């Protein structure tokens, strides 16, 4: 069965963006970012929520476009409507059973791109297998939390940790349900 890997940039205080989706303080260059970009090549499927998909618009993504051309995209939303989506982009109603089915389909592990509310929903359903954090050396004070409003408590097993340029670290954990 495929694993869901939540691979996400965070601040030291646990936010994946600041207020109003501001990610300007996060690192966008250096060896750690290069590692992340290289790691994404190993995925054939990405899942995300609507807000994460629409956040790409500020970086030039067009509605319906696939942000990761080599991956099949599943965007979970009850509100998003795309007029002419790329053949690799599917908008799906939030459905835990569909996520479970995606895990059973032959392929690579699944990249959970975000966001916080969507990841919290999956955490509550105990469907995230690996948490891979790009820990940025900054404090945001507020914004979008790593797991939204989820208050679930789980132990993590540290699998790997590595330091990169500019103080970025990539930390990998298994979630112990």
Observed structural traits:
177 residues, alpha/beta, eight-stranded mixed β-sheet, two-stranded antiparallel sheet, RibDG_C, DHFR-like_dom_sf, 5-amino-6-(5-phosphoribosylamino)uracil reductase activity
Commentary on this structure:
The chain has 177 residues and is α/β, with parallel strands linked by helices. Helix content is 19%, strand content 32%. The chain has helices at 31-40, 50-55, 96-104, 116-124; strands spanning 4-11, 15-17, 45-49, 72-76, 89-92, 110-114, 130-136, 144-145, 155-163, 169-176. The protein has an eight-stranded mixed β-sheet, sandwiched between helices. Strand 9 and strand 10 form a beta hairpin. This is Dihydrofolate reductase. Residues 2-167 form the Bacterial bifunctional deaminase-reductase C-terminal domain. One of its GO terms (molecular function) is 5-amino-6-(5-phosphoribosylamino)uracil reductase activity. InterPro entries: DHFR-like_dom_sf, RibDG_C, Riboflavin_Biosynth_HTPR.
């Amino acid at each position: 069965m495929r694993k869901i890997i939540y691979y996400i940039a965070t601040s030291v205080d646990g936010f994946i963006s600041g207020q109003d989706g501001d990610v300007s303080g996060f690192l966008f260059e250096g060896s750690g970012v290069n590692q992340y970009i290289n790691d994404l090549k190993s995925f054939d499927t990405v899942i995300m929520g609507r807000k994460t998909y629409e956040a790409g618009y500020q970086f030039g993504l067009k509605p319906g476009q696939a942000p990761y051309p080599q991956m099949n995209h599943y965007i979970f939303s009850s509100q998003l409507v795309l007029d002419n989506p790329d053949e690799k982009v599917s908008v799906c109603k939030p459905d835990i059973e569909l996520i479970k089915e995606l895990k059973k389909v032959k392929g690579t592990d699944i990249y959970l791109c975000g966001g916080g509310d969507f990841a919290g929903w999956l955490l509550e359903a105990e469907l995230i297998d690996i948490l891979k954090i790009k820990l940025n050396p900054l404090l945001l004070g507020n914004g979008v939390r790593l797991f939204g409003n989820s208050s679930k408590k789980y132990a993590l097993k540290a699998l790997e940790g590595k330091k990169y340029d500019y103080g970025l670290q990539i930390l990998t954990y298994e979630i112990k349900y």
